Structure formats: C-alpha cells, structure tokens
Amino acid sequence: xxxxxxxxxxxxxxxxxxxxxxxxxxxxxxxxxxxxxxxxxxxxxxxxxxxxxxxxxxxxxxxxxxxxxxxxxxxxxxxxxxxxxxxxxxxxxxxxxxxxxxxxxxxxxxxxxxxxxxxxxxxxxxxxxxxxxxxxxxxxxxxxxxxxxxxxxxxxxxxxxxxxxxxxxxxxxxxxxxxxxxxxxxxxxxxxxxxxxxxxxxxxxxxxxxxxxxxxxxxxxxxxxxxxxxxxxxxxxxxxxxxxxxxxxxxxxxxxxxxxxxxxxxxxxxxxxxxxxxxxxxxxxxxxxxxxxxxxxxxxxxxxxxxxxxxxxxxxxxxxxxxxxxxxxxxxxxxxxxxxxxxxxxxxxxxxxxxxxxxxxxxxxxxxxxxxxxxxxxxxxxxxxxxxxxxxxxxxxxxxxxxxxxxxxxxxxxxxxxxxxxxxxxxxxxxxxxxxxxxxxxxxxxxxxxxxxxxxxxxxxxxxxxxxxxxxxxxxxxxxxxxxxxxxxxxxxxxxxxxxxxxxxxxxxxxxxxxxxxxxxxxxxxxxxxxxxxxxxxxxxxxxxxxxxxxxxxxxxxxxxxxxxxxxxxxxxxxxxxxxxxxxxxxxxxxxxxxxxxxxxxxxxxxxxxxxxxxxxxxxxxxxxxxxxxxxxxxxxxxxxxxxxxxxxxxxxxxxxxxxxxxxxxxxxxxxxxxxxxxxxxxxxxxxxxxxxxxxxxxxxxxxxxxxxxxxxxxxxxxxxxxxxxxxxxxxxx
Length: 734
Description:
GO terms for molecular function: ATP binding; protein kinase activity. Pfam families: ABC1. The protein has 32 helices and 16 strands. With 734 residues, the protein is α+β, with helices and mostly antiparallel strands. Among the domains are: 127 residues, no CATH class; 170 residues, no CATH class; 126 residues, no CATH class. Strand 15 and strand 16 form a beta hairpin.
C-alpha cells in the first residue's frame, strides 16, 4: 500500500500551515522559555530577520535545562500545578530512559521534600473533591452537582499529569461502566489537553534532531493540532520530499512526573494488596503498566512499533497504518505520515468497528503483537473511509503459548467444558497448579453457566469479568501482569463498540474467527485441544463440530467483512465454503476427522440398510421368524452422526435449516428398539433431490480443490473396506 496515495485532505494543507519564518505575534506572547540571560527580556518583533527563529534556537542549545514560566495564564495546568517535579539533573533524567523502580526510588530518596509534596498534592486534591461529593450527598445535591463534579475531576487529572490521565483514558472508553457526564468529561482527556509552549516544542525539535528547523521543515503549523498526555502534534511539510507529516513532540517533564507517580502507585498497590488481601500481584500489574508507559515515552521505539504494525496489519482491507520517518525520529520527537480524519467514536461507523475487531483478532491471536492503547483518540476514520491507527507507543506482546491458551479458554467457555476451562486458567497463570480443580470447575460452572446459555453472540466480555470478580477472590485467582494489557485492550475495544451499539458483544464478534483458527491452525496444542473437544470420552461430538463449522462460516474475511443477508443464508454458499475449507491444506486435520466419521457412518448405514431389507423380506414370508437388529449401540451413534454430517453437507436444508437432535437411546437388550430408531433415521436422511443440486457447487471450486475432491472417494472406500473387514473378523472369530 502506497502511504502517500492514501492520505487525503479535505482542504489544502497550506490553509493551516504557515511559512516557518512569517513571524506570528500571537505565538511570541505564549511561550515557555529556557532560562537564559540573553533571552529573558527578549521579545520577537515583526521586523526581525527571517532567520531569527532558527538562530535563537541554536543559541538555546547550551541553555540550562530548567523551565521558567513566562506567563502563568498561558501555561498548561500540569506545568503550573506540578512543574516542581521537573527539577531533575540531566544525569537523573537520562537514568529514567527505561523503567527501573530501584533507580527511581534512589532518585527520590535523595529528594524527600518533592516526594512529600507530591503525596500531599495528590491526597489533598482528591480529598477536597471527595469531600465535596460527600457534602453533595448529605445535602441531597448530588444530581444537581453531578456535571460540575465531573468537570472538576477532569481538571484534577490534568493538574496531576500524564499518569493519571492515562488511567482516565482507559476508563473513558467504557460507557457501560461510567456515567454519561463523567464519560463526556474524561473523553476530553483523549486528545484535548492544554498544550505546552510552541517555542519549547520547536526548541526541542532542534535539540533532538541537531538541525535548524528550516533545514528540516519548509512549513509547520503555528499551534499544535492536538495535545495529549505525553506530547503534542504539529502539522509540517518535510523539506526533503515535500510530504505533509505529523510531528509529535514530547511534553517537558513527563518522565520525572510519571516516574514519581509510579513509585507512589507501586507503594499504594502493595498497601492495598495487604489490606484487602488481594490474590493478584497488584505491584506486578503496576510494573507491567509502568514498563509499557516508559516504552511509550521513547519515540524511537514507537516508530519501530509503527513500522512493525504497518508490516503486519497494514495490508488488511480498509486499515491505514501511517508511515514512520525513522531517520527524523529521536526519543522525544517523532515524525510520521499525516492522516486526516475524525475520531471513530464520533462518526459511529459500524463497518469500521468490525474492521477494528478483525484487526484486533489478528493482533491478539495471529501474531501476538497488539495495540494496548486503542482508546477513541487513537482510532480515526479517514475521509476516504479507512480505519487509521495513529499511536503506537503502548504495544503488547502475546506469546504463542498464551495465545493458544486464550483460544482454548474461549473455546471451552462457549462449549461449557468448565473442567477444561479450569485447566486453561492454570495454563494462563490465573491459578497455581496446586489448585483444587474440582472446586474450581464447580465455581466456574456457577459463574458462567447462565451467561453462556444465552449463546455466544450474547456473551459480554465486561459481564464475564464482572461475574468472575467474586469467584476470583474466593479461589485465589491471580491476574498475571502480562494479561492486564490484554484485558484492557479487549475491554476498551468493546467499550468503543458499545458506544455505537449497546448490544454489541466483542466475544460474539470474535468467536467465529476463534472457531476458524481452531479448525485450521497447525499448532499441536490447538489440534490436541480440538481432538479432545470433539471426542469426549471417546464419543464423537458432532454437535460441537457443527457449531464450530457454522461459527467459522460467520468469520468475515478482510476482503468481505460485510455480506448480504441473502448470501449469508444461501445453503449453496455455505456448502461451497465448507468444501473450500476442508479441501485445503489448512483443513486437512478436520478433513481427516470427517472422513473417519463418514466411513463409520457409511458402515452403520450399510448395516441399517441390511437390517431394513431383512425385515422387509421377513414380513413378506408367512410365518417367518422375526429377525433382531445386528446393530450395536456404537453403530447407532455412528448412524446418528452420519445423518447430521449429511445435513451439514447438504446446507442444513432439512427441517427448516437446522438439524434435529436425536437423543441417544439407552443400550437395550431389545434390538427391535435399534431397528425402529434406525428406520426413523433412515427416512430422515436428505433425499437425492436435496443433495444433487448442492453438487453444482463443485464446478465453481478452484481446479486444485476439484483435484483434491476426486481423491476422496478412493480414500473413503479404503477406510470403509478396512472397517467392514475388521468387524467381520471380530464377529466370525471372536
């Protein structure tokens, strides 16, 4: 995909780009300047030389690394209220490039006053707000003051800075959990945060890239186009190739502020765990989140993440991943392709939500490299109808073992195999290997039975987590630190979708792909799981295979995410999809199972036919003794399975499109019961008139699949002959 071609503009970029050297008086009065005797009293004037800006930025490179506020009225709330956190030496700042709790603790051990001041600021700020909420409740003004308190909470989070804003961003994506007034206010934290000084931003660009601004960009916007918790974005034009790009500049002081807040949160997590007797290692969860946050503050890592994300998922239909200019990127400055669009949450495009779900499925279950911060501010609908991902700072890795374990857990949950689900929780690290499996199975049955009974399309990920909450505490569940970002990613995605459709269920939308992956994946772990699922205690569960096949047919590919209702219900299309799947290399494992069960069914069908003919012959002969059925209970089960398979392969045409479940009979010495049931099943098989039209799909298959299909009769005949021979030997000689 040509990233240059896919960028669209509703208007000329020059409308809000300005030539770098056309001095803007408004810009000159809204600045944070580095402390420097030569600049403290200096003001821009419109008659100055056009090279003034770049020259003076050069002179700033040797200035001390301490920020001074020129005009408090123009300073963002974070800098104004928490600017004291920035006072770290260059060596201390450099030591915070990567998350290391010991280094952070060592720094603030030498700065106890800053630590105490921060604790007092956090406690007093939230304390005043909680006190106001309490007064509202006792004076019965809660409803009246609700919106006001929501706005106050947003302002508090802005003052406290990025760590708290990040937490709020995650919460703001859950309209099913947060009241509307709070949701509206917290949503403003996604990309509408007060920016810091453009002068500081331009100076940072020059310091980081080591070149004057005019040598890098021919144009740059006078004000940031968006400001977030960690940085702000400018629109610019590269001088080297004329491409319009987004330039993200890191907010000054974020590393110092976040490191101290994480130290405090880590300590509080330990206190809460002990006081509340939490089973989960809350400090490990904080560490996992902190590590991802520190990686997010390294824009070189973000650029590499973006390039990897583009390589893996940029080819998906209607997904746009902007190009990263790694050569123009440093730890604090990121240059990437400019993307025009609106937030996905504002346009309510259900098609793109499905595209996002499909893309997330690929991230979590195919490659394990996933976007861990998919809040609405990071997902755009471009003006040419694509879903654009624009932030790659917070990414997660999901290794193969855990991916397979997650798929197995979903599979066992939907099929109500709670015993296997308990084992999955051990594999995923939720439970220790020494857990009481029987007790866990019983508890999980109680928690999930009702939720799953509604059907997979009605299972809410949020509800599952909520229902599991009490049980997790009782059974000493632990949420592994690696899984916290996965849960957040899935929960946020469902939250965005719920904003469009209150009945949306992300698991219901994802399960068809899970079913398809289980049926097609070559992973030994998943194949073993599929084998165990389909053969419960040695008995083939045709209902489970039927469910997996029907669900997998609902899995929309990236080339056809939306199909017409007519096509979805067309039995010929269903049969064609089943054949196309089972005849490919990916479907070899399922094809082997189908051939094995069809051979058993044909054998049982032959016995039933023989019994039927014998019975008919006896009825035509006067005084002939009645003959008993030669079919065993196993033969009857195989016959039932064969009937279901024929209904599947005939497109579910019989009985209004859904095969009728025939209950298994209790083994009986009276073989006449088998004869009667066999006769009933015999008459319920699809007729030739129903099967023959379906054969018309064969010419529509690709030549290589037709060739594979021609090999099946001989394979099936060999299996059937082997089975008949083995049974004959058993009955004659044993």
